[in-house]
C-alpha cells in the first residue's frame, strides 16, 4: 500500500501536466474572449487598486512597467513575488500585479501582507478576465508583460519568470526610446 501511494503523486502530477493544469504553462485557463469594449492600448487600462483608488498603466512613462497577472492560490505566482519585489525597487522599473482572484480584497489583503508586497495590486475587471483588454486572452497564470516607456508590449511571458532570462528582456525594453 505504501509503495502504491508513493507512485500516486508522480502519476497524478504527470496527468495534470499533460492536461496543461500544472507546470510552467499556468495555473488556470482563462475564458475565451468575446465581444465587448474596444481593448485599446495597454497604457489606456485603468483598474481599481486594493486600496480603493484607481491606477492607470499609462502613468509613469519614465520607467519600464512589468505587469504580472496572478492569483493568490497559484504556486508559480507566489514563487515570483520575491523577484518582483526586487524589480519594483530597481531604478527605471516599476511592477504592478493584476489579481484574477474571485475573492477580491478579502483574499488579497492577507496575501499582500504575508508576502510583504509593496508594489501596487490591481483588481482585474470582468472585461479583462474575459480576454477583452489590450493584453488579450491570457491562457494561464502567471502571465507577465513588459511594457516599454511608450507603454507598448515589449514582451509577454506565460509561466514563471527568473532573473537569468527576464533581466535581459528588461534591459532591452529600457533601451527602447
Main β-sheet description = 5 strands, mixed
Q: Percent range for helical residues?
A: 25-40%
Distance between the termini: 63 Å
Strand content: 15-25%
Helix and strand run = HEEEHEHEHEEH
The geometry reads as: globular
Order of strands in the sheet with most strands: 5-4-3-6-7
Q: Which radius of gyration do the C-alpha atoms yield? A: 17 Å
Roughly what is the average pLDDT, rounded to an integer?
Answer: 79
User: How many separate helices?
Assistant: 5
Q: Work out the number of β strands.
A: 7
Could you please describe the fold and organization of this structure?
- With 177 residues, the chain is an alpha/beta fold.
- The strands form 2 sheets. It has a 5-stranded mixed beta sheet. A two-stranded antiparallel ribbon has the order 1-2.
- The chain has 5 helices and 7 strands; from the N terminus they run αβββαβαβαββα.
- It is globular.
- The protein starts with a helix and ends with a helix.
Amino acid at each position: 500500500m505504501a509503495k502504491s501511494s508513493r507512485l500516486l503523486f508522480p502519476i497524478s502530477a504527470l496527468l495534470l501536466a499533460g492536461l496543461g493544469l500544472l507546470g510552467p504553462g499556468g495555473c488556470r485557463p482563462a475564458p475565451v474572449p468575446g465581444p465587448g469594449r474596444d481593448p485599446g492600448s495597454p497604457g489606456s487600462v485603468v483598474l481599481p487598486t486594493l486600496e480603493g483608488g484607481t491606477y492607470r498603466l499609462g502613468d509613469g512613462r519614465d520607467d519600464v512597467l512589468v505587469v504580472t497577472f496572478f492569483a493568490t492560490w497559484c504556486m508559480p505566482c507566489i514563487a515570483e513575488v520575491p523577484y518582483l519585489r526586487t524589480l519594483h525597487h530597481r531604478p527605471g522599473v516599476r511592477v504592478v500585479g493584476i489579481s484574477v482572484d474571485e475573492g477580491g480584497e478579502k483574499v488579497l489583503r492577507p496575501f499582500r501582507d504575508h508576502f510583504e508586497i509593496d508594489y501596487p495590486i490591481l483588481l482585474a475587471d470582468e472585461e479583462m478576465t474575459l480576454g477583452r483588454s489590450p493584453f488579450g486572452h491570457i491562457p494561464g497564470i502567471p502571465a507577465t508583460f513588459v511594457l516599454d516607456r511608450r507603454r507598448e508590449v515589449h514582451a509577454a511571458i506565460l509561466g514563471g519568470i527568473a532573473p537569468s532570462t527576464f533581466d535581459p528582456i528588461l534591459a532591452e525594453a529600457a533601451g527602447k526610446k
